[in-house]
Design goal:
The chain is of the alpha+beta class. It is 38% helix and 12% strand. A hairpin with a 2-residue loop joins strand 7 and strand 8.
């Protein structure tokens, strides 16, 4: 005689084994997914910021003439206000500290925002210089302008001598580290662009002014914020020890995959990259 309605069920040991397998897989995959998500967010924030800055450079070329010439000849306060007024996302004058206390103001800003109190660069001492890989300047690069914020949450500061623009692309959120979420950009005239970007100082007429991304960590490490480029025989010379010597810094946009694409494609510098070629994945340790 057949017995109908008999139900089979998992044993307790089978359930525990299954849960253990699921837990192991989750422990292996969730950190990776979070890591990929964070790096993608930073990538898109950088792309947006870089696009905004390039657009401002183009608009100033049209409205004011060569953007590098305008930035370096106009009043510093006017330069800050003009730049921020053109920023996509609006702007807000957060604070106008003195050069002597801007590091502390930024440190407090990051701490109050719930992030780490800025990278070691904002409170440099012996330990900070050792972490930087050797002796370096103790001044924050963009140390003599106002602190600005915008509706995207970005933080903007400025340098007077070279009109450098510093931006934290995700505000007070971590990691608050140079060349990861804090970047610098320098407005260059056509001669500067010909020299530092294209290595073609004899033909500046072929180029136009632009706002160029730079290696802020190296600019700081070598204390170059106040060091302006000079001319020899009427021409700029690359490598003479100015803040521009660490420009351009194309790594964030050269070594990442095309946005929203998981297939091989060309980066902005014509390098073949995939979704695995991500600048932030390579340089940030979220663990």
């Amino acid at each position: 005689m057949k017995i109908f309605g008999k139900k089979s069920a998992f044993t307790l040991s089978e359930i525990l084994i299954t849960l253990g397998v699921i837990g192991t897989i989750s422990a292996m995959t969730i950190p990776t997914l979070a890591y990929n998500y964070r790096s993608k967010v930073l990538e898109e924030q950088y792309r947006t910021t870089y696009s905004d800055i390039r657009e401002i450079g183009s608009r100033l070329n049209y409205d004011k003439g060569d953007v590098g010439t305008y930035a370096n000849k106009t009043d510093f306060g006017v330069w800050q206000r003009d730049f921020m007024a053109m920023l996509n996302g609006g702007n807000n004058l957060f604070e106008t500290p003195t050069p002597g206390n801007i590091k502390q103001k930024l440190k407090d800003f990051y701490k109050d925002g719930g992030g780490s109190p800025g990278p070691y660069y904002f409170h440099m001492g012996t330990r900070g210089r050792e972490e930087a890989g050797g002796a370096g300047g103790t001044n924050y690069l963009c140390d003599n302008g106002s602190i600005w914020t915008d509706s995207r949450g970005r933080v903007w500061t400025f340098n007077d001598e070279n009109r450098i623009i510093c931006v934290d692309i995700n505000g007070s959120a971590n990691p608050n580290t140079y060349n990861i979420d804090i970047f610098s950009f320098v407005p260059m005239d056509a001669e500067m662009v010909a020299t530092w970007v294209y290595n073609d100082p004899d033909n500046p007429e072929n180029y136009s002014g632009a706002i160029i991304p730079c290696d802020i960590e190296q600019q700081h490490r070598h204390d170059l914020g106040n060091t302006k480029p000079t001319k020899t025989d009427g021409k700029y010379e690359k490598g003479t020890g100015s803040a521009l010597d660490y420009c351009p810094f194309f790594e964030p946009i050269e070594n990442i995959a095309p946005m929203n694409s998981y297939k091989p494609g060309k980066s902005s510098r014509n390098k073949t990259v995939t979704a695995n070629d991500n600048y932030w994945k390579a340089y940030i340790d979220y663990k």
